[in-house]
Design a protein that fits this description.
By secondary structure, the protein is an all-alpha fold. The chain has one domain. The protein is built from five helices and no strands. Helix 1 crosses helix 4 and helix 4 runs antiparallel to helix 5.
């Protein structure tokens, strides 16, 4: 139960604060164009998740499953820039993690 709470509350909050809060702001403050800053943070966010996906899924699925992570990063970066807030991306990230956990518990465990 604690793991579920961490994955639904703490993980989205910390990841969004770092990737869409800190890193995106640092890049835009360094005069990187907003679209490029979103692309770069999404790319590195995806590479970060490769570490957790690789041991769970075999090739080619581990590579294919990074693509939705990249797309989510783009979406959450766009949300952050559009609304100047982390609230939407944190909530959306929580819902995405809830969906992933439902699929895991219903079909993969």
């Amino acid at each position: 139960m604690w793991l579920v709470l961490v994955l639904l509350v703490l993980n989205p909050l910390l990841e969004e604060a770092y990737w869409r809060g800190y890193m995106l702001r640092k890049l835009t403050d360094a005069r990187v164009r907003p679209a490029m800053a979103v692309f770069l943070t999404s790319l590195f966010y995806s590479l970060y998740h490769v570490l957790s996906i690789m041991p769970i899924f075999e090739r080619p699925w581990n590579i294919v499953l990074v693509l939705p992570v990249f797309a989510a990063g783009l979406f959450w970066g766009w949300m952050r820039l559009r609304h100047a807030s982390l609230t939407g991306s944190v909530l959306s990230h929580s819902f995405a993690d809830a969906g992933i956990m439902c699929v895991y518990f219903l079909y993969l465990s």
